[in-house]
Write a structure and sequence with these properties.
45% of the residues lie in helices and 15% in strands. Helix 7 links the parallel strand 6 and strand 7. The radius of gyration is 17 Å and the shape is globular. The mean pLDDT is 97. The protein binds zinc ion (ZN). Zinc ion (ZN) binds next to loops.
Length: 247
Amino acid sequence: MISLMDTHIHLDAPELNGQGLDLLSEAQRYGISHFVVPGVRVSGWSGMLALAKNTENVYLAPGLHPANADQWTTSAEHQLKELTVEPKVVAIGEIGLDGTVGIALQRQEMVFRAQLQIALDAGLPVLLHSRKTTGRVLDILRELEVGKRVSGVWHGFSGSLQVAQELFALGFKIGVGPILLRKNARKLPEAVKVLPASALVLETDLPDMAERPEVLLKVAEKVAELRGVSLEEVAWTTTENARQLFF
Ligand SMILES: [Zn+2]
């Protein structure tokens, strides 16, 4: 039996109407055994924590999505710092910059930096979200030496091999998700083929990018096909990469 880890799954998303736990038992039938739930909004953090406390193999990456950067307050900062000591909290996420949302990038960057600082202080890796902001995010990660100090995952990666290699050199993993399954995907398959095995972790980003949890298995199968290795090898390597990062 293979064991896969979904490093980015929004089990607490309002769209799931509280059915996240049903998805977990479904996922387990496909060998998906471990899950990391990233934060999106401040009001979601307590529910995420309750879910993780009550559910085996569900871990948390609380944080504020850049699209919600306007929710950042002293109280939010306080709450996030307190969450870092919870045993089930394995990362801070999903944090970063998003050039497609209606919040000034200056504001987003202030909130991103504050959350990076919390992760660095707590020694926790980060789950990064970046859209149309690759250069700026890379500059900040380099400046603060985030990769070297705590590492993390560039979630939903869709960039070029060159950017992936740069991220890996900085100390980050590449979060490979359902974008890989798109018929018109060009850059990501090329990167997945060439990157070192130790660079890759898997994710669904459910419910945004996938409706069913077993999409993770399809992503793993595609990675295996592209790299010319067995599904078992992809499962073992990606799960081990994630384990080393988070546990
Ligand atoms: Zn997400």
